[in-house]
Amino acid sequence: MNRQSLVEQIKKKKSYLCVGLDTDPDKIPAHLKQRPDAVLAFNKAIIDATLDACVSYKINTAFYEAMGPRGWEIMEETVHYIPSTHLKIADAKRGDIGNTSSQYAKAFFEALPFDAITVAPYMGADSVQPFLEYDNKWTIVLGLTSNKGAADFELQKMGEEYLYEKVMKTVASWGNPGNLMFVVGATQAEAFSAIRSWLPDHFFLVPGVGAQGGSLREISEKALNKDAGLLVNASRAIIYASEKEDFAEEARIIASQYQAEMSNYLQ
Ligand SMILES: O=C(O)c1cc(=O)[nH]c(=O)n1[C@@H]1O[C@H](COP(=O)(O)O)[C@@H](O)[C@H]1O
C-alpha cells in the first residue's frame, strides 16, 4: 500500500488506528482455546470486528515465532486474511549485514505479503538499505522507543544531539517519506514536537497508548500533519478488552472509541 492509498484510507475512515495482533495463546478466551485453530480463529474475529475502525494491522512476529512452525503458518494465514484496504505491518524488528537483511526483506515482502516491516537500525546503512530498495513497501525504523530501556542508549547525548535524534535524521537521509516511517513511542510525548519539527512529512508508527499509558490526545496535538502522519498502535488494550466470549465485540467497542477520538483530532 503506497502513501497515497494510506492517506486516502485515513481520510475515509477518519482513523489512524493500527490494531496490534500480539496474540498470546495463553490469553485466548476459554471457549476458543480448545480449538486446534484457536489463534487463527481469534485473529479473524478481531480483524472482522475492528476493520471499520482502523487502517492498519501490526502482527508482532514474536508471538507467532514462539509457537514454532505452526505459528509461522498462522501468521501467514492471518496476513492473507487482512484486506488490501489495510496496511499490513510485520513487527519483526529485523536488521543485519546487507545480504542477510536482503533475505529478511524477501521473507516479509515477497514470501509473505506484508506492506511494511519494523527495522532496528543499530547496524547502519547497509543493514537498512535492502528494505528501502522496495519502493512499494514501507521500512519502519526504530527511532525513540516506548520502553524504559530507551534511556540506556537512545536518550544518551552524542555531542549536542540525542542518539535517537542522530539516528532518525541520518536514516531520513537514506530514504524518503514515501517508503520510510519511524517508530516513536507514545510514552515519549515530550519529544514529539521537536521530532515533528525536523521530520515534518514522515509517518510515525506510535505504539504505547493503552496498556503502556501514552496519551493519544497529546501525541495527536503535537504530531499530526496534513496527511495525518501518524499510525497509532494499540495491541493489548484492544485484543484483550474482554477475556470472555464477547472479546471481539469488546475489541470493536474499544477500537471504535479510539477511532471516534481520532476523528476529532483530524478535523
Ligand atoms: O515497534 C514497535 O511496534 C514497538 C516499538 C516500541 O517502542 N514499543 C512498542 O511497544 N512496540 C510494539 O508495540 C506493541 C505495543 O503493544 P501494547 O502495549 O499491548 O499496545 C508491541 O507489539 C510492541 O512490541
TrEMBL record:
In its UniProt entry, the species of origin is given as Flavihumibacter fluminis
| Orotidine 5'-phosphate decarboxylase domain ranges (all copies) | 16-251
Q: Name one Pfam family in it.
A: OMPdecase
| Gene designation | pyrF
GO terms (molecular function) for this protein are: orotidine-5'-phosphate decarboxylase activity
Q: Which Gene3D superfamilies match?
A: Aldolase class I (3.20.20.70)
Q: Which InterPro entries does this one have?
A: Aldolase_TIM, OMPdecase_type-2, OMPdeCOase_dom, RibuloseP-bd_barrel
- Which family does the record claim for this protein? Belongs to the OMP decarboxylase family. Type 2 subfamily.
Q: Which reaction does it catalyse?
A: orotidine 5'-phosphate + H(+) = UMP + CO2
Q: What is this protein called?
A: Orotidine-5'-phosphate decarboxylase
